[in-house]
Design a protein that fits this description.
five-stranded antiparallel beta sheet, alpha+beta, Thiol Ester Dehydrase, Chain A
């Protein structure tokens, strides 16, 4: 059995909504590591005393780019796992804060799709992803355009899992067992 990982152009339907699973609980470590890796040293994200004493939130807020990155990654198995290219992020809105310990969930709706004008083996899907926490509170909304292959593109390049090698029998493994 092969698990779905992304979709071909033909599999997208305008209006379809894909609920991404599982959710991701954001830990303080995750947030701090992302901030440090990306050189975002704003005290709102890293300094508990600063956040408690001087902000309206009273605690650290998860850096928005990490929230976006989690949701984008969460959508890959349903949306862009077969993508040829991410073409554009046309909008990105952080509409409520995410805090350490929150669990993020996401879902993506197909807004539109169209065939490529320059190559007949691909198309573009226009999608909107919303991310929300364990209480259902929407925290992030973004729209993007993704170039995805048509079935003909996938067939020409090896099918559902292009580039995947076959296991080779040797002295440690004789090959598939005969039934």
């Amino acid at each position: 059995m092969t698990l779905q990982f992304g979709r071909s152009y033909e599999e997208f339907e305008v209006g379809a909504t894909y609920q991404h699973w599982p959710g991701k609980t954001v830990t303080e470590f995750d947030d701090h590591m992302f901030c440090l890796l990306t050189m975002n040293h704003h005290p709102l994200h890293l300094d508990s005393n600063y956040a408690e004493e001087t902000t309206q939130f009273g605690k650290n807020v998860v850096v928005g780019n990490y929230v976006y990155s989690i949701l984008l990654g969460m959508s890959v198995p349903d949306i862009s796992g077969k993508a040829i290219a991410n073409l554009e992020v046309e909008s990105l809105r952080h509409v409520a804060p995410t805090f350490h310990g929150d669990t993020l969930y996401g879902e993506t709706t197909v807004l539109d799709k169209w065939e490529s004008k320059s190559k007949d083996d691909r198309g573009v899907v226009h999608v909107e992803t919303i991310g929300y926490n364990q209480d259902g509170k929407v925290v992030c909304i973004f729209r993007r355009k993704v170039m995805v292959p048509k079935d003909s593109y996938l067939t020409a390049r090896g099918g559902e899992q292009p580039g995947r090698p076959l296991p080779q029998p040797d002295k440690n493994w004789p090959g598939p067992a005969a039934d």
